[in-house]
Task: inverse folding
C-alpha cells in the first residue's frame, strides 16, 4: 500500500503564521457556560470554587508555556498574552490556540473534583473555545487588557446588584432587570448600600477585578524612565548571548507563578513589574 | 469606568472563515506523546487501553457535534470530517478547531481513569493540538482519509516487526532499526512469520486499520449509479423543507454512533454508506 | 554595507496561497468609473467604444495568461476564470490579482487612443482594482458567472429605459428614477416599446449579454453524458504524458481567442464547449 | 431573470483586512523585466530614462493616494509605505495592492512615450505585480527600507563593475562573472578605479542610492528628543479635531512631492523629516 499517491493532500494545508513582533492574545471562552452554570448549580453572581478552578487551570497553562508573560481571567474567559518576541510553534495560530485551549481544558477537567468535590462531572463535559488576536504595540495590548478588566467591573457591579435584588430583595428576573434598566454605576452602588447594606467596595477583589496570573519577581521602584510612553522600546527584543538566554530560562523556571487580583489598567502595575513587557526575568525575591 | 475608549481593540480580531462548500478536516494530534507513552508505560507497539480511550473521546466529539459526518483515528491522532454543507460556527477556523480539540481533551482526561484505572494522571497532563484543512472534492477528501489509513498500515507493520525484534528477538533499538532498514512490506511480513510465527493478517483490525467513528444506519446495496465518480453531485446540498430538516435531525440523533475498524480506502465502504457523503441520514436499523 | 542585519524583515511576508483544486475568479473593477464616464463624456447608457476597449484589454490578458480559461465582462468590470488545476504563480493571491490587474490596465491605457482617438487621456488616469475568489465546484463557478450575467441584463434593461426617458422623453434624472421605481422587467419593456418604439430584444447583444472571451475550438455536439451533473468529474485533472501536455500547449497557443456575446447561464454554451471546464484543448477548426 | 438564486456566491469572498496599526508596505515589481530590458534595449547597467519613468509613475501614485507617506524605488521595483494609522480601503490587502499596481502601471504605460520617445511600446506590454507586507514598528519599517537601499548599493556596485568589465574591458558575460566571483566591495572599487578610472563615489546618486518619493516640507532641526527610540510613540495617531484634520489635508495637498536620492538608512533623513513617520504635515516652505 503505497502512500505516495495520496500525499498530495498535504498541499491543501494553509499556513497561518501570526505577524512577527506583535503581542499575541489567545482568549479562551467557556462553551455554553450559562447552561453549565445551571446544570452544576454554580452560585450567583460569583461561584468562588468555579473561579478558583479557572485560575488553577490558567496557572497550569502559564506554568507549561513559558512564552506566556501574563494571563487575565474573568467569569468563564481567560486571556493569555504571548510576548511579541516569541517564536513558539513558529507562531502558527491554530497550533497556539489549540494547545492553550487543550491545556486549559485538560487541567479544568482534571482539577474539577478538587475544587467542586461534591458536584461530579457528567456529559456533556465543560469545554472551551479560543481565538488568537495580534496587537502591534504595548499601548494596544494594555488597552485590550483594560477592556477586559473594565468589562469585569461593569458586569460584576451589575450582577451583584441584580442578584441582591433577587436573592435578598425577593424580585424575579424580569423585575430585577427592569429595576436596573438605565441605572448608572452610582445608582447601583446606592441600591446595594441603601437596600441591602452592601458596600460594593468591600466585595472580594477577585470578583471586582478578575484574576491576573504571572511570574513574580521583586517589585521595582518605578523611576521616571519607565513610563508608559517608552514601553514599546522596552519591549523590543535585545540581542543577548546564549549564556544570558540560558540564565533567563533558569530564572524564569525558578520564579513563582502567582494568581492575584490587581488593577491592571493603571500604570503602576506595569511600572513595578517591567519584566512583564520586557520579557527579561526580574530578581527572585529572597525567602521571607 | 467607561469601556468605550478601549473597545477599539476588537477591530484587531481578524476573520478566519473557511471556504464555503468544502470538506473541513480537523486533525487532532497528541502533544509530545512519545514522552507521554514513556511516562505512563504504554504498551508497545500498540496499547489497546490507550487506543480505546482515544476512540471513546472521539465518539464523544462526534456525539456532541452532529455536523461531523465521520472521524478516523490512528495512534495519537484523530481526524474529524465536517460536511461541506455545514455552517457550524459560521465555519470560523479557530472556533471549529478549538471546540473540537477542547471536547476531545475534556473527554480524554475525564475518561482516563475508566480506561487506565491503574495509571493515575499527573502533571503535565496529556494535551492535543489541532488544525483545520479544507478539501474541495469528495475525491480529495477520500484521498486524505486514504493517506491516513495507508500511513496507519505502513507504520503498524513497521512497528509490529520492530517491537517483535526487540521484545521477542532480543535486539536493541539500534539493531532493530538496522535490521529493518530498506525492507519492503513483504520482507517485514516474512520476518514476522519466519522468526516469530506472527501472521500479520491475524493482527487486530484496530491496529492494522485504525478506527472509524460514524453514525450507523442500514447498509445500502450499492447500485451502478452510486459510484465514486458521481459522489461530488451526491454531496451537493439539496434544498429541503423545514419539516424534512427537522426529521433529518431527529433521525441523526437516534442513530447509533459506532467505532469500527474498516477499510475506508476502497469504494465499498462508501458505496454502502451513502449518508456519510450526502449528509442525508439513512434508515435506522431495526432492533435485532 | 552588509544587508544581513536587515534581511529578517522578509519573515514578515505572509503567504497567501489560494486553496488548490478550486476555480479562481479574479474580478477587475474600474476605480471611480462614474466620475471617469463623466470626464470623458462616455455615451449613455452604453458607450460602444469604451466596451470595445474593455474587451480588447481582456483579450490581451487571456492571450498573455493561458491558465485563464474564460473571462466575462460587463460595464467597467471583468472576471477572469483560472482553471482549478492551475498552479500559476503557486496560486499566490496577490501575485495573481496584481498581474491580471496590471496587464489589464497596461492594455487599457495603451489601447485607449485606438478606441477613443478623439478623447485624449489626462490625469488622473483610469485605473482598476481586483480581488480573487475561490469556487470549489463547477456549479458554484457557473452560478458566479450567471450572477454577473443576470446582473448585466437587469442593469442594462433599467439603464436603457432610464436613459430613454431622459434622452427621448425629456425627463430629468429624478423624474426618470421615480418613473421606474417599483417597475418589473415587463413594465420596462412596455415603456420602451409603447413610448419610444424600442424593442428591447433588438438591442445589441453586447449590451444585453455582456462579453465572453475564450479560446475557440470546434463546437461539440453535446451528448446525453456531458450534462451539468457530471461537469465536476469532467473538470478533474487527468494525468497525462509530457508529450500530451506539450501538444495541448501548442494547440492552445494556436487557438483563436474570441470575444462574443452569448448566453452563459444556460447549459448549451458549456455543453458545446467542453474545453472550457476540462482545460483539454479542443479541435482547431479548419479554415473556411 | 431573477438574480437572487445566484447571489449566494458572494459568500465565497474572503475578507483580507491587514492588521490595524501596522505600517503597510506595498512593493511593486516588474514582471519579466530582464526580457523587457533586452527587448527595448535598455542601457546597462542603468538606463536613466527607464528609471526616470519609474520615478514619474511612482510620483503619480503618491500624488493620487495621500495615505502613502513615502516610496522608495530601485531598478524595476518600488515600495510604497502606507502610514500605520491609515484606514484606506478598510485596509483590504487585495484592494490596496491592486489599486497601487494599477495606478503605477497606468502611469508607466501612459508616460512611456515621454521618457522613451524613440522606443515605441509593443505587445506584450510592461506589467508589474505587487504584494503587501505589514510592519508593526518604526524600527521594522526602517529596517525594511534599509534592506532595499543596501540591496540597491550592493547590486549597483556589482553591476557597475560587471558592465565596465564587459563594455570597457572587453570581457564576455562569463568572464566578467568569474572576475567578480568572491570579490568584496573594496575589490570592486579597486577594479573600477585602477582598470577603468571610475571613482564609484562619483557615480550618479540615483544609481547608488535609488529614489525616494515624499511630500516635502521645511526641514526640522533635530533635537535630542526626536531620536530613533521615541519614533514609535511619534507615530502613534493623535486624536484631533475635524478642523485640524481638514487643515492637515489641505497642507498635504499643497505640499510639493519630490523625487530625491538620499541616504534613508541613517537617522538624519528621518530626524529632519518628522512628518514622514508622524503623518502630521510639516510647514510648507516659503517660495524662494
Result:
Amino acid at each position: 500500500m503505497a502512500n505516495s499517491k495520496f500525499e498530495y493532500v498535504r498541499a491543501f494545508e494553509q499556513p497561518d503564521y501570526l505577524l512577527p513582533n506583535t503581542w499575541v492574545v489567545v482568549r479562551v471562552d467557556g462553551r455554553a457556560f450559562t447552561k453549565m452554570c445551571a446544570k452544576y448549580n454554580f452560585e450567583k453572581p460569583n461561584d468562588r470554587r468555579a473561579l478558583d478552578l479557572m485560575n488553577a487551570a490558567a496557572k497550569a497553562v502559564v506554568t507549561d508555556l513559558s512564552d506566556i508573560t501574563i494571563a487575565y481571567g474573568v467569569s468563564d474567559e481567560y486571556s493569555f498574552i504571548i510576548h511579541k518576541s516569541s517564536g513558539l510553534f513558529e507562531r502558527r495560530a491554530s497550533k497556539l490556540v489549540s494547545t492553550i485551549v487543550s491545556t486549559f481544558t485538560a487541567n479544568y477537567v482534571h482539577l474539577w473534583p478538587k475544587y467542586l468535590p461534591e458536584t461530579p462531572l457528567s456529559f456533556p463535559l465543560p469545554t472551551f473555545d479560543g481565538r488568537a488576536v495580534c496587537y502591534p504595540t504595548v499601548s494596544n495590548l494594555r488597552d485590550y487588557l483594560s477592556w477586559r478588566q473594565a468589562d469585569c467591573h461593569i458586569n460584576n457591579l451589575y450582577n451583584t446588584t441584580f442578584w441582591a435584588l433577587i436573592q435578598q430583595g425577593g424580585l424575579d428576573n424580569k423585575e430585577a432587570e427592569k429595576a436596573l434598566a438605565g441605572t448608572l454605576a452610582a445608582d447601583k452602588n446606592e441600591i446595594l448600600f441603601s437596600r441591602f447594606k452592601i458596600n460594593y467596595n468591600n466585595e472580594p477583589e477577585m470578583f471586582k477585578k478578575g484574576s491576573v496570573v504571572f511570574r513574580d519577581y521583586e517589585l521595582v521602584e518605578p523611576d521616571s524612565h519607565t513610563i508608559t510612553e517608552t514601553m514599546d522600546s522596552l519591549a523590543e527584543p535585545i540581542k543577548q548571548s546564549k549564556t544570558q538566554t540560558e540564565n533567563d530560562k533558569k530564572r524564569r523556571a525558578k520564579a513563582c507563578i502567582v494568581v492575584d487580583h490587581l488593577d491592571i489598567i493603571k500604570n503602576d502595575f506595569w511600572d513595578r513589574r517591567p519584566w512583564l513587557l520586557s520579557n527579561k526575568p526580574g530578581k527572585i525575591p529572597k525567602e521571607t
